[in-house]
Automatic annotation (TrEMBL):
UniProt lineage: Bacteria, Bacillati, Actinomycetota, Actinomycetes, Streptosporangiales
Family: Belongs to the glycosyl hydrolase 31 family.
One Pfam short name: Glyco_hydro_31_2nd
Organism: Actinomadura keratinilytica
Coiled coil feature spans: none
Domain Glycoside hydrolase family 31 N-terminal: 55-218
Keywords, sorted A to Z: Glycosidase, Hydrolase
Domain Glycosyl hydrolase family 31 C-terminal: 583-668
Name of this protein: Alpha-xylosidase
Record-annotated Glycoside hydrolase family 31 TIM barrel domain positions: 260-572
Keyword Hydrolase: yes
Tree of life domain: Bacteria
């Protein structure tokens, strides 16, 4: 939200007051409060005037400082509030002298000057990260009686801002106006399904505005050298998080707001959907599944979209008896094929659903101020909204899903949750403005916790569209309704990278696009992108997404990339462990991994998948692609060709290829199974070693199938011409394993294994727990 008319004036009807100096300081253990009048105090008469800005600083955990800016403190306690963690043992030191008051937590210090000019500085590692100076912090009133709190933090010339949720515009947010307000707006506009009031910078810090309602960001837009954020109300709290790297910022932000949960291995396989408005029954579903099997296409999950229920009765959670007369039998038959089952749900109840009267009678639906059920005709006639602030309503809703789990359903696509009214009354008295975004947190939490209770830790997964801060705890999330165009494919990738820089570890999208029907070229290019994403789903709107309906080459391309992903599962499981263990996204913008490379600052058409794989989707039918390669000698994973980095590369790829490059010095574990994701990833694993430097030492851990431990650990090192690999399997197991020295033509000798030529180098089959490979002198 913009308040000014250019640099000098305020907009008509807008009046701002700015803290001018520190009047006094209240310092206590681990926090301090300053009172700052909005005019200089020249004599006692000035002490009779207001306003006074109250600024409180504290620290919930190391390297994180919380700042609360308050005008009037007599407002009711806000509801709802984000769940924010705090470390009771955090050591935050407060210092007060004549020049300043400061608080230091870990390596981060916030300092408020007590001199002639108001100034707040954030300092770390001997430098100023950012700060709030002249006319930056403000309390603002309008002639219409509205009240806002605003803050502006300085941005340096080379400082760039990322995040703010899943946003489909440019990855770098500088120059943008962003309102944190969930909307069902597709992927082609400034609206977003997943709004998160958190941004990170390449300047060593991130900022989380602890307000679940509308937060307005002006990022180098209203004030081009500042990142501005404001909320309507009398108080605003934000946290400044010191990294210094983007990876560290994400680790600390997710420690504050919650880490993504561990998801089951089977969820990384290929998901096939009925699509949205297509006509289908058990015969149709079976024909799709049999068609996949006949074409040797690995399939892990089958998804039933909305019309598994009767029209106008969404949601009643009952199978349409006209097309599914025997749901338990059908699900049993599908599961006998080794499939998991997902069904579509949403938090809305149409008037014709039997659950409408039930929810109305029990008070489980949002109400209008006069006590009526809140209803409208968008989406479903007479549509009402489940009130998840009511604990009984949550139990009621979960019980309906529980019956489906008993029947054989494994997971749910938790669609919608964005169109939450602000003229409704919530059971717990929540402020509708604050509840609008937060609603999706309660919705997905209700479903995810049911699945976790029924299936166990690490076995719960949803396919969610809406989210806000903290929603990363309930994965997986997908990108929403995109068109079937290359432009929408690019929008989707930007959205996913932006979401990853907002604390979300997993992300997916509709392969081929949702709206419309992709042409075969687009479909095949999107397949490669989709199978090199965290999660992979074939889904559309009014047309099926089985590949043989496009062309036979689509079948081959889908087989190729699905089996590639299955072989990459040992590597992907390790990247997933970083997601739930550290808060690092599986799909990462290049700047996350290479923050010191200026060329990576704006890159949004490529990404890192985990630590070591660079993926550059092809956004053209003819296969032409341009991408940037950081310094070092990288290797094409699919061909073994080397690429010297520090430059842009232009290539042309067939439909069965795309730029998939391995980082120099990487050890990529490749599995021995390519027809399913949930297998023993350590059994028969091949460690692919790339450009290992002299003196390097790399540890590779293979998570156990349950995800609760480590199945195997390998240490790869190089000392001169000797490359050594030591293996340790859980429980002292003895399993086959291999080492591939990529790009090596021959070796002098091998100890502990047998060497053979390979298309990409020298393959050594281990004969015990250790291998030593001696390279030939060159």
């Amino acid at each position: 939200m913009k308040f000014t008319d250019g640099y000098w004036m305020m907009r008509e009807g807008v009046h701002a007051s700015y803290p001018a100096e520190v009047l006094d300081v209240d310092a206590g253990p681990g926090s301090f409060t300053v009172h700052a009048p909005v005019q200089r105090i020249r004599h006692r008469g000035d002490l009779l005037k207001g306003p006074v800005v109250t600024l409180t600083c504290s620290s919930p955990m190391r390297d994180v400082v919380g700042v609360t800016v308050t005008h009037f403190a007599g407002t009711r306690p806000p509801r709802p509030e984000f769940e924010v963690a705090a470390d009771p043992d955090v050591d935050a030191a407060v210092a007060v002298d004549d020049d300043a008051v400061s608080l230091t937590s870990g390596d981060l210090t916030v300092r408020v000057a007590r001199g002639d000019e108001w100034r707040v500085d954030f300092l770390a590692a001997g430098r100023r990260l950012t700060g709030s100076g002249f006319k930056a912090m403000a309390i603002i009133d309008t002639d219409e009686g509205r009240h806002y709190v605003r803050e502006q933090l300085d941005l340096g010339v080379d400082h760039f801002v990322y995040g703010l949720g899943e946003r489909f515009g440019p990855l770098v947010k500088n120059g943008q106006s962003v309102d944190i307000w969930n909307a069902d707006g597709g992927t082609a506009s400034e609206q977003a399904y997943k709004n998160v009031p958190f941004f990170l910078t390449n300047a060593g810090y991130g900022v989380f505005v602890d307000h679940p309602g509308r937060v307005s960001f002006e990022v180098a837009s209203e004030a081009v050298a500042r990142a501005q954020f404001s909320v309507e109300g009398q108080s605003m709290r934000y946290y400044l998080i010191y990294g210094p790297t983007p990876r560290e910022i994400l680790r600390k932000y997710t420690a504050l707001t919650g880490r993504p949960a561990r998801v089951p291995d089977w969820s990384f396989g290929l998901w096939l959907s009925t699509s949205f408005t297509t006509s289908y029954d058990e015969e149709t579903v079976t024909s799709f599944i049999e068609g996949m099997a006949q074409r040797d296409l690995p399939l892990s999950v089958f998804h039933f979209d909305c019309f598994w229920m009767r029209e106008f009765q969404w949601c009643d959670f009952e199978w349409d008896p006209r097309v599914f007369p025997d749901p338990p039998g059908m699900l049993r038959r599908l599961k006998d094929r080794g499939l998991r089952i997902c069904v579509w749900i949403n938090p809305y109840i149409g008037q014709r659903s039997p659950l409408f009267e039930e929810g109305k009678a029990r008070g489980y639906l949002l109400k209008r101020p006069n006590g009526d059920v809140w209803q409208w005709d968008k989406w479903q006639p007479g549509c009402a909204v489940v009130d998840f602030t009511n604990p009984e309503a949550r139990q009621w809703y979960a019980a309906k899903l529980d019956a489906l789990l008993d029947m054989g359903v494994d997971c749910f696509k938790t669609d919608f949750g964005e169109r939450i009214p602000t003229d409704a009354v919530f059971y717990d008295g929540s402020d509708p403005e604050r509840a609008h975004n937060y609603y999706t947190y309660l919705y997905n939490q209700t479903v995810f916790e049911l699945l976790r209770k029924r299936r166990g830790e690490g076995e719960a997964v949803v396919f969610a569209r809406s989210a806000t801060a903290g929603g990363q705890r309930f994965p997986v999330h997908w990108g929403g309704d995109c068109e079937s165009t290359f432009e929408a494919m690019g929008e989707s990738l930007r959205g996913g990278l932006s979401l990853g820089m907002s604390g979300f570890g997993y992300w997916s999208h509709d392969i081929g696009g949702f709206e419309g029907t992709p042409d075969p070229a687009l479909f095949k290019r999107w397949i490669a992108f989709g199978l090199l994403s965290s999660h992979s789903r074939l889904h559309g709107s009014h047309s099926y997404r089985v590949p043989w309906l496009f062309d036979e080459e689509s079948v081959d391309v889908l087989r190729h990339f699905t089996r590639l992903k299955m072989r990459l599962m040992p590597y992907l499981a390790g990247a997933a462990r970083q997601a739930y263990g550290e808060g690092l996204p599986m799909m990462r913008a290049m700047v996350v991994e290479f923050p010191d490379d200026p060329a990576c600052t704006h890159l949004e058409r490529q990404y890192m998948l985990g630590d070591d794989l660079l993926v550059a989707p092809v956004f053209s039918a003819d296969g032409r692609v341009a991408y940037y390669v950081p310094e070092g000698v990288w290797t094409h994973y699919l061909t073994g060709e080397k690429v010297h980095g520090g430059r842009w590369v232009r290539e042309r790829h067939g439909f069965d290829s795309l730029p998939l490059l391995v980082r120099p010095g990487a050890v990529i574990p490749e599995g021995a199974v390519d027809d399913r994701p949930d297998y023993d990833h350590a059994d028969g694993v091949t460690l692919r070693v790339y450009e290992l430097a002299d003196g390097a030492r790399v540890t590779t851990e293979i998570p156990a199938p349950s995800g609760g431990g480590t199945a195997a650990s390998f240490t790869t090192s190089r000392d001169g011409a000797a490359v050594r690999v030591a293996a340790q399997f859980a429980g002292g197991a003895d399993k086959p394993w291999n080492v591939l020295l990529a790009g090596v033509d021959s070796v002098a000798r091998v100890e502990g294994g047998a060497a053979a030529e390979h298309a990409h180098g020298i393959l050594v089959r281990a004969e015990g727990p250790q291998i030593a490979i001696y390279l030939e002198d060159r």
